[in-house]
Amino acid sequence: MTTQTLDPLLGVARLDIVPVTEVTLDPMRYYVVLILGLVYALNIADRYVVSTVLEPIRLEFKLSDSGVGWLTGVSLAFFYITVGIPISQLADRSNRRNIVAAAMATWSAMTALLGLTQNFWQFLLARIGVGVGEAGGTPPSTSIIADYFPREQRAFALTLYALGLPLGAWLGSNVAGQIVEHFHSWRAAFIALGVPGVVFGLIILLTIREPKRGRFESLAVPKAPKVSLSDTLRFLWSQRSAFHINAAGAIICLWGWGLMYWTQTFLERAYGLTTAEAGARLGTIYLWAGIAATIATGLILALPAMREPKRIAFFLTAVVVCSTVPSFIIYYTHSLTVATAMLWIVVPAIYLYVGPTMALLLNFLPASMRAQGMAVSLLSANIANLIVAPVVVGFISDRLAGPLGSNAESLRYALMALSLTGFWAGYHYFTSVRTYVVDDQRIRDLSTAVPEPA
Description:
The protein is mostly helical. Helix content is 76%, strand content 3%. It has 19 helices and 3 strands. A 3-stranded antiparallel beta sheet has the order 2-1-3, covered by helices on one side. Helix 12 (275-301) packs across helix 14. It is globular. The N and C termini lie close together (6 Å).
């Protein structure tokens, strides 16, 4: 007996019915989430350390705000984007565990190499290497997790995975700042955070097993036709819920992570803090507020009432919209106390969206497109976070520095303008709900084939 699944974008695929069987209590699932969450933490730490030492790098290399944005943000994002799609295609067809292990060793080695650079061009080349390595981290990791947990548990599992965000931000801010102060060199922070990751790549290779692809769907993924990038892009465009979820994730990165990219520099300029002082202040907030928000989100998503995707979307809409005004106040006020208080409100909102957004997107994609779909999502997010935010904010700051007579005030106005994009992200989360029912049924039809008459 054979089965057929017909979709106007994917075509007809001849499949076998595969019964879904799973041991509910499998401790390996949570070990995998733990290890991949630590991978994510080191990925984020390697990014945050750049924000922490952004001002020392700018001063040593004699760059403008837009110039340092190009060096530290665009150089990574461009090659992350270029390499990310081919790697995600490979991840949808081959061993994802091996890809994550190799990627981690690569970007960690390149991060350590950043600490040995002596000029602009050396730094640029090493930063490109970091981007190439990081491209193989998150898409295959989230695809692996999706095959360790059934769809109704993925939001919770990916929220646990997202705990790597606050941990990594703390490492890249607080710990990196202390390293800079102790060694009196921004280069020491890169070396200290890069070397452990090379060893960690071996741990992944030796202790994590590659799961069967699509194990919780009845779709026999290995027998399905290979899906191209163009197939994935067409599907994402036609799957309107997935389109709006992807847009919301990209814009919230522009809003939240774009602001955080410059906040360390802003605190140093506006309030005269040292690299270590600003890093400690931000790192403490990243760690405790980020972990609290992520755990609280995981507990909320574990509630039976939150298993409906639309409720997750409404939850995210409310959080980001309500956090946009405090994000504006951070840069509007001239009080460090007020700015710090507002950061304690805004930072949790930046963290808690990650796991739920990944889960929503993965649930609206077939198993054969998950790594590529996640790569497209990360591509959008990284364009917003690592190209638009560093360059546009830097450009505005450079242009306003003369009229305002201060690069601290010019950066303040640029960040106030960026803070308002939070409302835009909320719009996309809210709009995505309109087609949830139709799009969810489409995924179920693709994943559960109807037998033909014998």
